[in-house]
Amino acid sequence: MRSDSDDWDITTSVGSTALFVAAARTLAEQDEEPLAVDPLAELFLRAAGGEWALLADPDPELTRDHILRSPDFGTSFRAHIAGRTRYFDDYLRAAREAGIAQVVILAAGLDARVYRLPCLAGAVVYELDRSHVLDFKRETLAEAGIEPLADRREVAVDLRDEWLDVLRDNGFDPGAPTAWLVEGLLIYITPEAQDQLFATLDAASAAGSRAAIEQMTPLPREEYTEMVESEQADDEAKSDWARLIYNDPRSDAAQWFSERGWDAERTGLADYLRAAGRPLPVVEAGAGHVGAPLVNLVTVVRR
Ligand SMILES: C[S@@+](CC[C@H](N)C(=O)[O-])C[C@H]1O[C@@H](n2cnc3c(N)ncnc32)[C@H](O)[C@@H]1O
């Protein structure tokens, strides 16, 4: 279970979720005509070693029983991650086309956009996460000799605390329009910490700023409790994950920002994938994956 000031590295607790989504990006790329391509995800898996490295191996037999390869959870989760990666890549391209030169990626984890999206060249990109996660990323990329395409600045913070001053100390200019990115974070912080984070974005955003946010509606309470309490070996990864999240009712991102002078657009992940011609796979009720249909992709623009 979580506590208010818990910490982690890349293979433990919330840190390992960054590797988990990197693994999903790697596996999703093996689809025909993948929605998004992140060649660096594989590098992080190899550097993490053990089972993570096996997921990067071209031989799928080595990880045949891994949850990310399962026909219910795995198929749906890979589609979820591919869809959101594409959505946020397109968001950043549009922000750059609109002339925004300051990008802040909250909970950057192993997000490699600053190394793989040419549109970011010429921008300043701040990557915020816990220090051990940033250390792993920096050391892995340095060892591979991979350079960022933009002016990348690491900011080690706990996003549950006040972090704006630290961002400013690293050169962030609240007077310039910003593109904020909040992907795969909100469920790992409490509803109160989320409101505080939204208030920070609101306070630090000049006119023309925008934010793209992934938000999941809480899982139905019974299903969540079952996941947490499950002692079945097959469900171990799911119950470990369920223990890391805060499955509590919280402010709706689109509504929160639209009440404060931002234009908001919310797209259900399932609708987004359908429109992209890759509908979410239908899984049997109770087959274990309830998350993806509850995910919304939200973009807000400050008037
Ligand atoms: C699921 S990963 C998502 C990483 C990345 N955004 C992506 O989509 O690939 C969650 C990330 O949130 C970070 N995170 C969660 N809570 C945080 C906090 N309180 N402060 C800083 N980072 C946090 C974790 O360290 C981890 O890198």
Automatic annotation (TrEMBL):
Q: Is Phosphoprotein one of the keywords?
A: no
Does Methyltransferase count among this protein's keywords?
Answer: yes
Tell me where on the tree of life, at the top rank, the source sits.
Bacteria
Q: Gene3D superfamilies attached here? A: Vaccinia Virus protein VP39 (3.40.50.150)
Q: Tell me which EC number(s) this protein carries.
A: 2.1.1.-
Q: Tell me the InterPro entries matching this sequence.
A: Ppm1/Ppm2/Tcmp (IPR007213), SAM-dependent_MTases_sf (IPR029063), SAM_mthyl_Trfase_ML2640-like (IPR011610)
Broad EC category:
transferase
Q: Which Pfam families match?
A: LCM
Which keywords does the record carry? Methyltransferase, S-adenosyl-L-methionine, Transferase
A molecular-function term among this protein's GO annotations: methyltransferase activity
* The family this protein is said to belong to: Belongs to the UPF0677 family.
What is the name listed in the Swiss-Prot or TrEMBL entry for this protein? Answer: S-adenosyl-L-methionine-dependent methyltransferase
